[in-house]
Amino acid sequence: MAEIKKVLCAIDFGPMTSKIVDYAKTMCSCLNSKIYLIYVVHSLDAIAQFSVPKSYREEYEKQMIDQAKAKAQELKEKFFQDMDVEFVLKAGKPAKEILSFMDSEKIDMVVIGAINKEDIGEFLFGSVGEKVIKLSKVPVVVIK
């Protein structure tokens, strides 16, 4: 039987975050596994060719990281008072950063949310969940 010691929960602080985190917490409690929450600030480097100054891009990322840290603390207080959870914060292309973290930490399972096709983020950046599902080497639990 497969051992699931490390579970990665990918979040975006959108409307489904609480539901996704709740499922991940329940699974980790039952499996007695470590949980990692990952949030990736989407880098603005992709739009550098549109004359967006580097200082603006860096300030944007800094502000997003600061906001993410505050939101992560709220999640920890709401869901994980009795559990060991590690919050991981990255900047870059979300799917690439999630997959890279999965490999480097030898994650055994991923929990991720599914979004509607009309989502503006999917239109602009592509579906992170779809890429993670297609390229993951481990099972992915999709929360709808």
**Separate helix tally:** 5
Major β-sheet, in short? 5 strands, parallel
Count of beta strands: 5
What is the level-2 CATH architecture name? 3-Layer(aba) Sandwich
How many individual domains?
1
Distance from first to last alpha carbon:
27 Å
Strand order of the largest sheet: 3-2-1-4-5
CATH fold name: Rossmann fold
* Stretches with pLDDT under 50, minimum 5 residues: none
Compute the average pLDDT.
87
CATH C-level label:
Alpha Beta
CATH superfamily label: HUPs
Helix % is: 40-55%
Strand content: 15-25%
Shape: globular
Question: Structural class, from helix and strand content?
Answer: alpha/beta
Radius of gyration: 15 Å
Top keywords for this entry?
22% strand; Rossmann fold; 144 residues; five-stranded parallel beta sheet
Textual characterization of the structure:
This protein is an alpha/beta fold and 144 residues long. It has a single domain, classed as HUPs (Rossmann fold), CATH 3.40.50. 47% of the residues lie in helices and 22% in strands. The mean pLDDT is 87.
